[in-house]
Amino acid sequence: xxxxxxxxxxxxxxxxxxxxxxxxxxxxxxxxxxxxxxxxxxxxxxxxxxxxxxxxxxxxxxxxxxxxxxxxxxxxxxxxxxxxxxxxxxxxxxxxxxxxxxxxxxxxxxxxxxxxxxxxxxxxxxxxxxxxxxxxxxxxxxxxxxxxxxxxxxxxxxxxxxxxxxxxxxxxxxxxxxxxxxxxxxxxxxxxxxxxxxxxxxxxxxxxxxxxxxxxxxxxxxxxxxxxxxxxxxxxxxxxxxxxxxxxxxxxxxxxxxxxxxxxxxxxxxxxxxxxxxxxxxxxxxxxxxxxxxxxxxxxxxxxxxxxxxxxxxxxxxxxxxxxxxxxxxxxxxxxxxxxxxxxxxxxxxxxxxxxxxxxxxxxxxxxxxxxxxxxxxxxxxxxxxxxxxxxxxxxxxxxxxxxxxxxxxxxxxxxxx
Length: 418
Known about the structure:
- By secondary structure, the protein is an alpha/beta fold.
- The protein is 53% helix and 8% strand.
- Helix 5 links the parallel strand 4 and strand 5 (174-177).
- Helix 10 packs parallel to helix 12.
């Protein structure tokens, strides 16, 4: 209970209150209102003499923590890695997010980055963006870390152009294309105009609608994403292969959980795609192994040789052999940018996860464009200890947070509506 007795100057609640509330929101994905309610329930259940902060008080703690992490001094060095992406919501606004870590802090091989591993470097909300604007934003971010060794991102038009201009001005910086987006781009090119694939997806969607509220719901295909649909092709192919195995077993011994006649009526169409599914399965095996290898091991000189030794990274068909060679050529091009005995980051998945967590925290508020919670994105990353919380509350007054929000966000769609 000592934590709950340590109250900072000019504060009503203790460090314990703040740490518990922020841990519920940042580590347990609890909403702001639910976090306040959880503390109230804990105090009531254990009969603890604890006062309960309101959700709005907790929100201010979150924003002050985010502002502190975003603006605190970073050590300038030549080995910084920047991970960048745009987060887009309703309206014309978008925000360039830059997260970073030093090469010396990269996790060991076969380990992926987590939110605590990265630092918030900069956030630039804008109403319009192009390559020149992104370049100017990157130049401004140099003030915090110095010129980075690596920038990793997807190939969004304005981001790609901005990074290319930046790298021309700073030859010591290399631009690495995120492996997951590269894989998705390859799959899109291969499957977009594939008549068999389009027919297969159409039938899968129709089947899902037909069986989702019937006794065959357990056999329904996975839901297809409306955006970035080529990033979950593997789930649909896996479902199809497993369901085909089930249908084959049904011919020898019917499963009593399902009506054989209904199974035949709703799912027999899968048999028409048996040969195509074998090819798509091999395609997915190749691209997922390449993606996983780069995600866990990074990019380094001759890493394609190690990838070729990975079990299962082989191809029997003309199409998959071609894709395998294309992926290897891509990885060779990327690894040629690494110096001897240097390891670069090959996946920007951590920033996708952070942006996803922000949108989960905002819930329906993201339909009102950017709100003050945008600043909480910086609170999500890096370590949140009691010492960090104390420094944030002591050094960041609420007034400074409101000034940042007014300067960078202005009025949300909701405030304009009002």
